[in-house]
Design a protein that fits this description.
about 350 residues, alpha/beta, Rossmann fold, 17 strands, 10 helices, 6-stranded parallel beta sheet, Dihydrodipicolinate Reductase, domain 2, 9-stranded mixed beta sheet
């Protein structure tokens, strides 16, 4: 089979810093067109990565550029309409998170892809990470016994704090932005990827920092007044008294504790962010009196890190082999429902059942 032809829309920092250079190394795929509203910037990146076609209009790219799959790295509010237009044009889709904003939009995309026989792969990439796959295996095979509680940190100090040097971070604090869609989606994908679909959601949420100040780059000193919640605590019920807590906040300036912990009747998994490649991806505590095992141990295996474009690799391989992508839109839709349910649950002070599964 010939190389899979990709077109990429949205030339932000993640596209230029990660997706384009990583895709350029793939033997079975190539980017043949890029699209961004900034013409000079798009042309510069096309020259840098040897890409033949440059567009500032997405519809023009769909009509004029011959490609097989879209890589959507545009801003969050643009994901759904661009993904839908690509599917209607007969293109496979890999989308940055979240691939839609509501369950209804997600269902439209899932149905459209199924109707046309097209494949969708939806970020985040956590289920392609070997350490998450191993944690899932340990849970499913009962190594931890009955899992009772999962804690996951899915937060940072805010995009104005460190992330955006040359772009205005204000939109992160407006409708369609916020830490739930930006950060919470990561923790929710990890927790549900390991435990499976959640049954209901409770939540605490609000605006903690009323005024934020950009700390670097072209917008240094700009004051931002959040219009959406910047501090959200999510509680998930998986049934049989198995609970998970995910923090989704722009109020965590620094942290040293584990990012993910899983507590079971026969053991614990504690995963910190690795500083070096040779560090173990997590530590395992086992309590098995019959086997004379009780204590902490670092797994012998050294699991490699994956890079951001592994989701594109997953889609390309699915196209070439005919298999289903690992990063399914049904899983992503379930996470979207959780995120959409969080704020009503917080405002109304109640637990809300979930309808979707995967």
């Amino acid at each position: 089979m010939e190389r899979v032809r990709l077109a990429l829309v949205g030339l932000g920092s993640i596209a230029v810093g990660q997706y384009l250079p990583q895709i350029a190394e793939l033997p079975d795929a190539e980017v043949v067109a890029v699209c961004d509203v900034r013409q000079d910037w798009a042309a510069e990146q096309a020259r840098r990565f040897g890409i033949a076609r440059v567009f500032t209009d997405f519809d023009a790219m769909l009509a004029d550029a011959p490609f097989d799959a879209l890589v959507n790295t545009a801003s969050i509010p643009a994901h759904f309409p661009l993904n839908l237009a690509a599917l209607r044009a007969g293109k496979h889709v890999y989308s940055q998170k979240p691939f839609a904003s509501t369950v209804e939009e997600a269902t439209v995309l899932i149905d459209e892809a199924a109707r046309r026989g097209l494949k969708m792969s939806c970020s985040p990439i956590h289920l392609l990470r070997p350490e998450i796959q191993e944690m899932r295996r340990l849970v499913q095979e009962g190594v931890l016994g009955k899992v009772s509680l999962v804690r996951c940190r899915s937060s940072h100090g805010g995009p104005e704090y460190f992330q955006y040097r040359d772009a205005d971070p204000t939109w992160f604090f407006q409708e369609g932005g916020g830490p739930l869609l930006d950060m919470g989606v990561h923790g929710l994908h990890q927790v549900t990827g390991i435990l499976g679909p959640a049954r209901s959601v409770s939540c605490l949420s609000g605006v903690s920092e009323k005024v934020r100040v950009a700390r670097s780059g072209a917008f240094d000193g700009r004051e931002i007044r959040p219009e959406v919640d910047d501090n959200t605590l999510i509680m998930l019920d998986f049934g049989e008294a198995t609970f998970a807590v995910v923090d989704s906040s722009y109020c965590v300036k620094a942290a040293q504790g584990p990012g993910l912990e899983i507590f079971g009747s026969a053991g614990t998994i504690s995963a910190a962010r690795r500083a070096r490649e040779d560090e173990p991806p997590f530590e395992l505590y086992r309590d098995e009196p019959a086997a004379g095992v009780r204590g902490w141990m670092a797994p012998i295996l050294r699991l490699p890190r994956v890079r951001q474009a592994v989701g594109v690799v997953d889609l390309v391989d699915a196209i070439r082999t005919g298999r289903r992508p690992v990063l399914t839109p049904e899983h992503a839709r379930h996470v979207i429902e959780i995120m959409n349910t969080c704020l009503p649950a917080a405002r109304e002070g109640r637990t809300i059942p979930l309808r979707t599964t995967f």
